[in-house]
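Title: Prediction job returns without error message
Component: structure pipeline
Severity: low
Priority: P3
Assignee: unassigned

Description:
Job completed but the reporter wants confirmation the result is attached to the right record. Sequence as submitted:
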Amino acid sequence: MKKSLALILFFIVSSTRAEFVSMDILTMTLKADSIVAGEITCVDNLVYELEVSQSIGQIDGVITIRKFNDWACAVRWTDYFVGEQLLAFLVKDKNGFRALGAGNEGELPILKNNVYPSLMCWSFDYGQLKKLSPHQGLEKTDSIYHMGIEVNLGFLWRYLDCITNCFEASSYQFSRVKSAHWTCSEKKVLELRNSNKLIDLTFEKYPHITKDVN
């Protein structure tokens, strides 16, 4: 009986894992209704409040965001806590705001003006790998640290702003951009490539969706 139950659970979890495809940072940027950075000021059972310090999408003040729910394939690296600083890719539905990503990749920790995209969403050969440990008392047995790429917040923010204003996706497949095009002029794109390394790396990483302006 125990063996049969174990097999059933194995196939359920395996099936669930097969359906989980993480979003990369380009896809989250294009799918988000808003991108915000700020500090958590209140934590409740199902939601938290974030005081927004900067945003792409005309959001300011304090907003309420639904918490990420841990599940079989993904556990948030730390419990939410007052004072936690985040960069979040948000969508809004009838129940309010929530962060993108089934693996919690849509909530990026911020520490001392650096932001730490998780490995599952970072597609570029740029930045240094760092391991972040949760504060004492906020540890989780299934996820004791966050593996992320250290990137200067201002530098990443300029990239996100450029993508939002000069890039448009037309279709997605398996939680990733399938087809897209640049909306800025070739001259503007060249300026952006020369001014921000991540823009240049986007062309190298996604030649199938940026070839129109190469």
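Comment from assignee: result matches the submitted record. Residues 184 and 191 are 11 Å apart (CA to CA).
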